[in-house]
Amino acid sequence: MAKWGLLCSAAALLLLATGGAIPPPEEAARMARFVLHNCDWGALATVSTQEGLRGQPFANVFSLSDGPPGPFSGSGVPYLYLTDMEISVQDLEINSNASLTVSLAQTPYCKKHRYDPQNPLCAHIIFCGSIVKVNDSEAGLAKKALFSRHPEMESWPKDHNWFFAKFNITNIWVLDYFGGLKIVTPEEYYSVKP
Predict the structure, then answer these.
(1) Which of 18, 27, 35, 55 has the least C-beta neighbours within 10 A?
(2) Which residues have CB under 8 Å from 45's CB, separation 6+?
(3) How do residues 59-92 score in pLDDT, each as one tens digit?
(4) Is residue 175 part of a domain?
(5) Per DSSP, what are the bridge partners of residue 42?
(6) Residue 188: how many CB atoms within 10 A of its CB?
(7) Cα(136)–Cα(63) distance, rounded to whole angstroms?
């Protein structure tokens, strides 16, 4: 009986740690929303403008958030807090196109199931699109989304001229099961809850 209680407790902790039950593989749009909402950072790839790398892909890690932690509180919009001093942001000023990858490998889920980050069962999502500064009416949403997950951001140096931005999604690929990538449209993605 005690063993069953421990298993139930572990399952409850896993659900809390990953923001709820993981969607089934046949619900790719929900999976994309779920993975993004449960990730605090992602790998953002830009087209480099830096000397010696010009025109080459350049990936960098950025903190992100689509809303405060907890089930059903995500908007699906990946928000970022950026400064023009950052090398990837300098790339984006020339070419705003980018891709963003997020993975459940950042959560306890894959480790708990002993899934290698490259295992398709350790779901990851690849977004393509562009980075745009948010307008004043959306800045409050972006601030709440980011500062609720990354409170340290509020104390970052003001002279770095930080600004809120979002990843404007145009294409979505989901790898969450065997058999290859699944394509999800932005319309499908935004029409479901994680």
Answers:
(1) 55
(2) 57, 58, 59, 60, 98, 99, 100, 101
(3) 999 999 999 998 878 999 999 999 999 999 999 9
(4) yes
(5) 62
(6) 15
(7) 21
**The domain containing residue 32 runs over which residues?**
28-191
Is the pLDDT at 3 greater than 70, yes or no? no
> 180 in a domain, yes or no?
yes
**Tens digits of residue pLDDT in 4-44:** 333 333 333 344 344 579 999 999 999 999 999 999 999 99
Q: Tell me the β-bridge partners of 173.
A: 126, 183
Three-class DSSP category at 40: coil
The token pair that represents 132 in the structure block: 């745009």
In a domain, 12, yes or no: no
Count of structural domains within the chain: 1
Percent of the chain with pLDDT over 70: 90
In a domain, 5, yes or no: no
Q: What is the CATH number of the domain that holds 145?
A: 2.30.110.10
